[in-house]
Amino acid sequence: MSSLPEEAPPPLPREKMTxxxxxxxxxxxxxxxxxxxGVIYAxxxxxxxxxxxxxxxYVALRDAIRRTGAPCHTLPDGMAVRVxxxxxxxxxxxxxxxxxxxxxxxxxxxPTIVVExxxxxxxxxxxxxxxxxxxxxxxxxxxxxxDPDDRLIVHHERGGDGVIRTHVITQGAAKLDPPGFELxxxxxxxxx
Length: 192
Known about the structure:
Layout: H1 19-26, E1 33-36, E2 39-42, H2 48-68, E3 72-76, E4 81-84, E5 87-89, E6 93-97, E7 111-117, H3 123-127, H4 129-134, E8 142-146, E9 153-158, E10 164-169, E11 173-176, E12 181-184
Parallel strand pairs: 7-8
Antiparallel strand pairs: 1-2, 3-6, 4-5, 6-7, 8-9, 9-10, 11-12
């Protein structure tokens, strides 16, 4: 019995797009995509370690919000953040504060915390373009880059003076103030 060859996905458009053009193009399309400076990038398939870490982060953020009573909400991957006329990122998890967004919302307009789980294919982008892009949004106070394989969080934090400070966390917790809670490494990794 022969198997049919898998059909190759259609090539990504080569012309640069605006966010609105990207939305029209991506609607109903299989897979995950991001738009960076008008260019569409397909998201690579994930390893189990990556997917598990995304789930752990979502649960840990949700639990921290519930525990502290912070007026915030957490979202898993799949939600988009518009960081310019030609750039849309899709973080692995995020927190926004204030009223709950309507169910048909596509873009989270005011994320407070954005989280990316690093992978071999996204590492450079997570540490460069996304740092600059996420902090273009005044609402972003914390950008966390989480390593699924090593007990490590890189925490970029907007200070009261507007300066972005970076903390490398291998023990304890990332202090996320505002909104006023912590993300403990023990919630994500086996105890050290």
